[in-house]
Amino acid sequence: MNLPFLLARRYFISPKSTNAINVIAGVSVVGMMVGTMALILVLSVFNGFEDLVISLYNSFNPDLKIEAKQGKTFTADAQKLQQLRQIKGVKAVSAVLEENALLRYHDNDVIGRLKGVDSSFLSVSAMDSTIVDGSFLLEKDSINFAVVGLGIQALLGVNVNNQFARLEVYVPQRAGKVSVTTAENAFRREIIYPIGVYAIQQDFDAKYTLVPLRFMQQILEYPSSEVSALEVSVQKGYAVADVQAALQTALGKDFRIMDRYQQDEFLYKIMRTEKWAVYLILTFILIIAAFNIVGSLSMLVIEKQHDLGILKAMGASSSFIQRIFFYEGLLLSLVGAAIGMILAVLICWAQQHYKLLSLNGDTFLIDAYPVSMRTGDFVLISLTVVAIALVAAYLPARRAAMSAVLLQKE
Q1: pLDDT per residue over 65-84, tens digit each?
Q2: pLDDT at position 109, please?
Q3: Residue 26 and residue 110 share a domain
Q4: Does 235 share its domain with 340?
Q5: Tell me, what's the pLDDT at 322?
Q6: Residue 378 CB: number of other CB atoms within 10 A?
Q7: DSSP of 252-299, one letter per residue?
Q8: How many domains does the chain have?
C-alpha cells in the first residue's frame, strides 16, 4: 500500500477549508486540460494540412526522380530504361524532358514550363485523377495534345472544348545567330491542342504544361534518347530507400536520385518548422498554466500545517511528507492532462466525421479543416506534460518537507 499516494488522493478529492485553494486547484486542473487539449488539436490540424499538401504534391511528384549532376539533359536509351525497370522494387520508369517556353493562346501569352512525358507517365504519377476539365490525353492519330494547369488556363483563357483553338509554343533556337532585324527567327514555333486542365496546387497549376515527350524532343531539336530526368515509381512492399540505393549503385555517382522529400525539401522543412514553432509556443503556455499548481500546493501546505504536525508526531519522515504533496501535484497535472487528451480525441474524431469547422469559400480543395492524429504527437505531449508536472510538483513538495522539519524542531 502506497500511503503517501492515498493521502494525496484524499487531499485531491476532498474539499479544502479555504475556498481560494479549491478555486486555484480547479484552475490548475482546467489550465492543464486546456493546454494539453490545445497542443493535440493544433498539432493534429498541422498534421492534416501536411498530409493534404503531401498528397497534392505526390500526385505530381514521383517516388524517385533521377537527374544528372552536371548538365540539363542526359542520354537514356531503351537499353538503359530496361535495365532500370529490372531492378527489384521498380514498378515503372518514365522519361521526361522539361524546358521553359512562351505559350500563346489567341492574344494572351505567358511564360511557363513545358514537361514532355512518355506513355509511362501515368504509371509514376496520379495526374489523371487531378483533371478538372477535359481529359488527360497527349497523343492520338499523330496529333499532339497538351494538358495545362488551372493557373495557366486562367492566364491564357484556354477553352479545352474549342477543338479549333490552338496553343502556340515558342522556344529559343538551339543553334544559329540571332538577327536583330528578324528576332522572331530566334524562336522555334510549334502548334499543340489543349485538351485537359489539371488542378493540384498553385505552384504547379500556374507553371507546368504537360505535352508528349516526342513533341518536346522535336521542338528542342533533341534526339529521341535525350531526357532531363527519369521518374520512378516503387512497388508496394518495397522500401523507397532500398530502391533508391539500388538505383544509385546501378547508375553511379554522376546521377542524383531524389525521393519525394528531397524533391521538395524546402517545403517539407517549412512545414515542420512551423509545426514545432507552434508546439514550443503552446508548451510555454502550458508551463505558465503549471504555475497554478505551484500556488495551489503552496497554499495547501500552509493549510495542512496541523496535519503535518500530527504526521510528524506519528513518526512520518520528511521524505514521506514530501511524497504526499509531490503526488498531489502530479494528480493535479496528470488528471487535467488526461481529460484534455480525451476531449481532444473526441473533437478530432467529430471533426473527421462531422466536419464541425468548415472552410468557407469555393477556392479551397477541401470543405473542412483536416485533422490527423499521430501516436508520436501523443507520446511527445505526454512526456512534455509529465516533465512540467514533475517540476511543478517538486517545488511545493520540497517546501512541505522543510515545513515538517521546522515543526519537528518546535
Answers
A1: 999 999 889 998 888 889 99
A2: 92
A3: no
A4: no
A5: 74
A6: 17
A7: -TTEEEEEHHHHTHHHHHHHHHHHHHHHHHHHHHHHHHHHHHHHHHHH
A8: 2
The residues, any chain, with a CB within 8 Å of residue 312's CB and separated by 6 or more, are 321, 404, 407, 408
Q: What pLDDT is recorded for position 169?
A: 94
Last residue of a domain, one of 263, 291, 309: 263
132-137 long-range Cβ contacts below 8 angstroms, 24+ apart? 132/197, 132/198, 132/199, 133/160, 133/196, 133/197, 134/160, 134/161, 134/194, 134/195, 134/196, 134/197, 135/195, 135/196, 136/196, 136/198, 137/195, 137/196
**19 and 168 share a domain?**
no
Q: What is the mean pLDDT of residues 269-276?
A: 87
Last residue of one domain, picked from the residues 263, 278, 308: 263
The CB density around residue 370, as the number of other CB atoms within 10 Å, is: 21
Q: What mean pLDDT comes out for the span 325-330?
A: 80
Spatial distance between the Cα atoms of 139 and 410, rounded to a whole number of angstroms: 97
Residue 16: per-residue pLDDT? 58
Q: Is there a single domain that holds both residue 245 and residue 112?
A: yes
Rg (CA), the chain: 32
Helix (H) or strand (E) holding 102: strand 90-105
Range of 172's domain?
64-263
Cell of 264: 521538395
Q: What are phi and psi of 164, to 5 degrees?
A: -100, -10
The residues, any chain, with a CB within 8 Å of residue 35's CB and separated by 6 or more, are 282, 285, 286, 289, 340
| Residue of 168 and 185 predicted with greater confidence | 168
pTM reported for the whole predicted model: 0.75
369 in Cβ contact with 48 (< 8 Å): yes
The cell for 376 is 508520436
Together in a domain, 199 and 276: no
> 290 is written with which cell numbers?
503549471
**What integer is the mean pLDDT of 34-52?**
90
pLDDT of residue 173: 81
Which of 145-149, 174-178, 251-255, 383-387 shows the highest mean pLDDT?
Answer: 145-149
Which amino acid, residue 177?
Answer: K
Cα distance between residue 251 and residue 245, in whole Å? 10
